[in-house]
Specification:
Blueprint (H helix, E strand, L loop, with lengths): L1 H19 L10 E8 L1 H5 L2 H8 L3 H19 L2 H7 L2 H11 L5 H11 E10 L8 H10 L12 E7 L19 E6 L5 E9 L2 E11 L5 E6 L4 H9 L12 E6 L1 H13 L13 E11 L2 E10 L2 H20 L6 H8 L1 E5 L2 E7 L3 H19 L1
Antiparallel strand pairs: 1-2, 1-8, 2-3, 3-7, 4-5, 5-6, 6-7, 8-9, 9-10, 10-12, 11-12
Helix pairs in contact: 1-7, 4-13, 5-6, 11-12, 12-13
């Protein structure tokens, strides 16, 4: 039952990606600016998740949250709203699915059963003269200068699952083969690569997806562009991603140097960097990770600075901010106890902030937050 539900949810997810995704164009020689890996299933068994779900405040929050999501989805995806956005056949099939007993709670529980990992990599073109057009579009949108955003997705979005992605291809019945899509690879009962190219409400939709058989009943479904999809498919079969360890409870986000060069340039263009210190330009990389050490989940943020002096300056700044924050809370408060447990260190060009998530003060704050969130959602 759960696998059938997962197949249905995934088919609809892919369908929405096709209908509502922004243009996915050729990547060229773009540089990686953001990467993310989430060992989803393994993290579900982590010390942090066990502690979270054991809290008395968790179950009331989860019930209220999922119920409210169901009500919002049912309202937003009413038959009338769907027919305004989608062809009648798709709108009718989607409503039948929503009315078949699917719920947010069931969807979350099913994802935890079948989704092993999520991998994301975003690329952008960036040099000394011009910034990447996608990053400029995002900047203009945040400034309110654009009402619509055409974002070219250059990179990779991948899901590792235990269900054969061929079962998701039922959504192809809504598209015209060799007109809206074509198979670039279609091995009998094996791997496939699909390329989509069509118009939707005056937007050009162009991207590729692939289904790859891995080992021991595992599969990968990939989204990228036609210049990179074959390369990524090989990487999951025999390359760097084939040997990737997804068994450790871990979430990892990496912001590359290009991100900070972009932020530094935007501040200077907006004349917000009045001292010309170029703080963001001093950062080479930032890595944030949730992982387990000695069976305890901990958060670790590490910044790689350009010089050792910069690393020590950032350490001193963070230490000062922590001390200032402690002055603004009561002596025996959970906030002060939590701040005192955070470790801030510098070594070479690296500065790190580490916090073990077994701190009793932290769990007091989480329990309080869940209780407050439950009350706000009810209102």
């Amino acid at each position: 039952m759960t696998k059938r539900l997962f197949v249905s949810v995934w088919a609809l997810t892919v369908l929405f990606a096709v209908c509502f995704a922004a243009t996915m164009a050729a990547a060229g020689d773009g540089m990686t600016i953001i990467s993310y890996q989430d060992n989803f299933k393994a993290f579900a068994a982590s010390d942090f998740v066990k502690r979270l779900t054991a809290l008395p405040e968790w179950e009331p929050f989860f019930e209220v949250f999922t119920k409210t999501c169901d009500e919002a989805i049912d309202k937003e995806l009413s038959r009338e709203n769907l027919r305004r956005r989608l062809p009648d056949q798709i709108a009718n099939d989607l409503r039948l699915f929503l009315e078949s007993g699917i719920s947010t709670k069931k969807g979350i529980e099913t994802a935890f059963q079948h989704l092993e990992a999520v991998i994301f990599k975003l690329q952008a073109d960036f040099d000394d003269d011009e910034i990447d057009e996608n990053l400029q579009d995002i900047t203009d949108l945040l400034r309110g200068q654009k009402k619509e955003l055409d974002l070219d997705f250059d990179g990779l979005l991948a899901f590792i699952i235990d269900v054969n992605p061929r079962s998701f291809l039922t959504f192809l019945k809504y598209f015209r083969e060799k007109t809206d899509y074509q198979f670039l690879r279609n091995e009998p009962n094996g791997d496939f690569i699909l390329k989509f190219d069509f118009e939707y409400y005056d937007h050009d939709i162009e991207f590729c997806c692939a289904g790859i058989k891995l080992n021991t009943g595992r599969y990968a479904i990939l989204f990228s562009d036609d210049d990179q999809i074959v390369q990524y498919s090989k990487a999951f079969k025999t390359g760097r991603y084939a040997e990737m360890d997804t068994t450790q409870p871990q979430k990892e986000l990496i912001l590359e140097e290009t991100c900070f060069l972009f932020l530094d340039r935007q501040l200077k263009r907006a004349k917000l960097d009045s001292n010309e210190t170029g703080f963001f330009g001093k950062i080479k990389k930032v890595k944030a990770a949730l992982h387990e050490a000695n069976s305890v989940t901990q958060l670790e943020i590490t910044a790689d600075m350009r010089t050792g002096e910069d690393a020590h300056a950032v350490r001193d700044l963070l230490t000062g901010l922590s001390a200032f924050a402690q002055l603004n809370v009561t002596e025996n408060s959970p906030e002060r106890g939590l701040l005192q447990a955070v470790q801030i260190n510098a070594a070479g060009t690296n500065v790190s902030v580490t916090a073990k998530l077994d701190n009793p003060e932290l769990w007091k704050l989480i329990a309080k937050g869940l209780q407050q969130a439950t009350e706000k959602i009810k209102k």
